[in-house]
């Protein structure tokens, strides 16, 4: 699975990417802002490849023009949400590549993948209150601030820190999209209405399953969405 944007290629990482990933992870200002210590050696990065970077849903961020690996991004299980159609957004960008809009661009692609291909209903994200750059990325991506978990995380250096909590739902995501996604947003709203008023199962559009029943057929005619 590869995701393409105007400037970036997102693809699953491979073991041979370890050295380039180390170069993105050894800076003094990258890891501490996300809760992990800077990588001390390429060997340390290689040891982390299998448990951290080679997991399903994790992508390397490459600049298409140069092929340079500049960071990583992924959707992984959220331990704070006991729901199979939720994931947590995580990302990291090498300091030399800050300020170019790469993470926002990669984030939009991964949200399309999460809500579209994976059929998720909510994507969460967490960051430290002092991580202004990460907060700005989440705001640009349309995440809503849910609140702060006080003294909830003990960092590698012993510091106990707050987490600011953010989330983006499929409904919010569709609403933010332009004209091609408006029908999907309406269908999400109709799903709730149909379930409440007609007690009829209307399948979420992102999971590519067919929609059945006369109410769904009627809604398809009204919106131009193909139903079966």
Element pattern in H and E: EEHHEEEHEHEEHHH
Instruction: Report on the biggest sheet.
Output: 8 strands, mixed
Low-confidence segments, ≥5 residues, pLDDT <50? 200-228
Helical run tally = 7
Nearest-integer average pLDDT: 85
Task: Strand order, main sheet: write it out.
Answer: 1-2-3-4-5-6-8-7
What is the CA-atom radius of gyration, in angstroms? 20 Å
The outline comes out as: globular
**Percent of residues in β-strands:** 15-25%
The N- and C-terminal alpha carbons lie at a distance of 28 Å
How many strand segments?
8
Q: What level of helicity do the residues show?
A: 25-40%
Structural class: alpha+beta
What's the structural blueprint in terms of helices and strands?
Elements lengths: L2 E2 L3 E5 L5 H8 L16 H12 L4 E6 L5 E8 L9 E8 L8 H16 L4 E6 L4 H9 L3 E11 L5 E10 H7 L5 H16 L16 H10 L5
Helix pairs in contact: 1-2, 5-6, 6-7
Kindly summarize this structure in a few lines.
The chain is of the alpha+beta class and 228 residues long. The protein has helices at residues 18-25, 42-53, 102-117, 132-140, 170-176, 182-197, 214-223; strands at residues 3-4, 8-12, 58-63, 69-76, 86-93, 122-127, 144-154, 160-169. The model is unreliable at 200-228 (pLDDT under 50).
